[in-house]
TrEMBL record, chain A:
CDD domains tied to this protein: TM_PBP1_LivH_like (cd06582)
Transmembrane feature ranges: 6-31, 43-64, 70-92, 173-190, 218-242, 254-274, 281-299, 311-330
Listed GO MF terms: L-isoleucine transmembrane transporter activity; L-leucine transmembrane transporter activity; L-phenylalanine transmembrane transporter activity; L-valine transmembrane transporter activity
Subcellular locations according to the entry: Cell membrane
Entry protein name: Branched-chain amino acid transport system permease protein
Similarity comment: Belongs to the binding-protein-dependent transport system permease family. LivHM subfamily.
Cellular component, GO annotation: plasma membrane
Protein's organism: Deinococcus humi
Keywords attached to this entry: Amino-acid transport, Cell inner membrane, Cell membrane, Membrane, Transmembrane, Transmembrane helix, Transport
Membrane topology of this protein: Multi-pass membrane protein
TrEMBL record, chain B:
Position of the signal peptide: 1-21
Family: Belongs to the leucine-binding protein family.
UniProt superkingdom: Bacteria
Name by which UniProt lists this protein: Branched-chain amino acid transport system substrate-binding protein
Residues of the Leucine-binding protein domain: 24-370
InterPro entries referenced in this protein's UniProt entry, alphabetically: Leu-bd, Peripla_BP_I
Species for this entry: Deinococcus humi
SUPFAM superfamilies reported for this sequence: Periplasmic binding protein-like I
PANTHER family xrefs: AMINO ACID BINDING PROTEIN (PTHR47151:SF2), LEU/ILE/VAL-BINDING ABC TRANSPORTER SUBUNIT (PTHR47151)
Keywords linked to the UniProt accession: Signal
Amino acid sequence: MELSVLLPFIVNVIVGGLILGFVYAIIALGYTMVYGVLQLINFAHSEVFITGAVVGFEVFRILQDSTMNGYLKLLIALIAAMLVSGLLNVLIERLAYRPLRGSPRLVPLITAIGVSLILQDTLRFLEGLQGRFDLTYTLPAGFGDKFCSTNSTCAPVGDFLRTIGVDVQLKDVILVVVSLVSLAVLNYVVNRTRLGKAIRAVSQDRVTAGLMGIDSNLMISATFLIGGALGGVSGVLFGLKFGTVNAYSGFDPGIIAFTAAVLGGIGSIPGAVLGGLLLGVIQNLIGVMNIFGNLLGFANLSTIDASYSKIGPFIVLVLILIFKPTGLLGKSNVEKV
Amino acid sequence: MKKTALSLSVLAAMALGTASAQTTIKIASISPLSGGQSNLGTQIRNGVQLAVNEYAPLFKKAGFNLQLVPYDDQADPATGTAAARKIASDRAILAVVGTLNSGVAIPASAALAPSNLVMISPANTANQVTDRGLANMNRIVARDDSQGPAGANFIMNNLKAKKVYVLNDKTAYGEGLAAEVEKALKAKGVTISGSEGTEEKSDFSSIVAKIKLTRPDAIYFGGIYNQIGVFIKQLRGAGIDTPVVGGDGLDSSELPVIVGKAGANNIYYTTVAAPLEALPAAKTFATSFQKTFNTPAQGFGAFGYDAAKVTLQGILDAARANGGKVPSRKQVQDTIRKGTYKGLLSGEVSFNSVGDRKAATLYVIKVKDGKADLETSLPVKPPKN
């Protein structure tokens, strides 16, 4: 096969992986923030995330027939999902984690898994009441269009994409923009505001922060609120990208995003983003491995098809943890005596 | 319903009035009447009831009082088998029409076999249903192993594809079907540009990228509508309009909903339950079904009706051969396996030595703009004859 066909293919796979990676990155931030403050792995986060996706579905469904601008619909969906997922996360912390604070680490971990199962079935029940299982996103008109499909009016970016033969739909661009905006806002809140300073203080040393007059419970709730809201955003983006969700579809992306957080160095915000993007690309590359196997004549490679794509992220995780146990951007936790 | 009750009571009154010698002959139906599949199961029951209403006068002339006993299996093998045992203990029941699910038919027919109680299935497609070679199990629909070759033939002859990408969902159903298709395509020299399984339910981006690269003329996907629907949606989103072909797992009105109206084009699937418009004689049937049950008839209603007609004609034939007396269950079982039944909605029915329909039909449905229409029908034969 000539290079002129193969090159766009590889670019396509990488671009597709990056777009997928942004979804993972935003989910991973939810894990990493909670871990950074409480050293707790919030396994219920994948359901918080899918709750956001369900809320987004409901908003798009209700607004389906209105003539409202598509971007406004998306904004409403995002805000609603952020509110519901954020408050849900706060509620989970208040009911399931706070009473267990101070108990051995395994205990809240098990509760988290329990909460996750309860949420799955609650969502299934609520949507099942209306006779729905697979929720299909009805996107506003135009969201599925090829970015720059008309030849006449084309942004320079669109022109460029077309020349190199990459498929990007408008919704993919929206996805990346929304992710970048959420990242920028999060970065601003954590690093530039009093709230962020307080959260960072609590994450460093809860007791001392308390002595300095910081209400650590409030800050923990705030962390869960922010993490949950990010989960809501990623849920809507997930629905936007793949078109369908059900109550159980949070598990796979959730566990990969968790891997992304660990890969980047859990607790580190840039690490979560880097991890997410990396895993997205790796997953897509593993998924097309058999094509390379066929082209290059490696029989072993040609049997690695898309069904193995999700193993890729975990192999990389194991390798990185062997050689750099703190993750890519994580700092080692030095115990001071 | 009222009408049925009335005619039954009239019948009963007449029976009492004219001849006390009239014997009651019953047939049973087993299908899911409650639960998630009750829509299809009730269709079968109603179809059988319609056939019974039609045959009751004929039975009466022969001196018998005909009755239907419907059983509910809830699409559950254990419940269905329990129903079969109850049926076996009722000596007046001479034949059974059922079931919807192969998983129920297999143990239920085994439970009926010792008492030589014949079962005629309007819906079961699993190979195993008749592969066990039971003397009492017959079906009037095509088998799963004819679906793969039929799909492959359709891809070659109708779509004229030279290069096909084959996918499956890694379940026994999807993998088996895709393997049959691949085998048949390869045998005819069609290039398989890719063949893989995936359990993925949401992210098909790497598969879509590969399809874009290899440019097949058609895609075959062995699996169920909720996965394939998402796949097709993403395929069309990437600007690939290649036809997608599948098996009866795609036979659901949910499919175009998931794919979205814009992309729900150029999709084909093979199925055993014909849409009513594909059955030439079904018009009168559909009218009387609507009139009797106040709901529109669907494919499985028609097949329930056909299966019941085979059953009832078989009982009448057996009675005639038995000198006008009530035939034994074994006589009914043997008569039905050997008989030829004409004038049914789905054409002529006769069975081979294991109970498969000698010439069954598979229907190919085309989805266009979200609407499912009959594209073509393919005659298929069971492996044994």
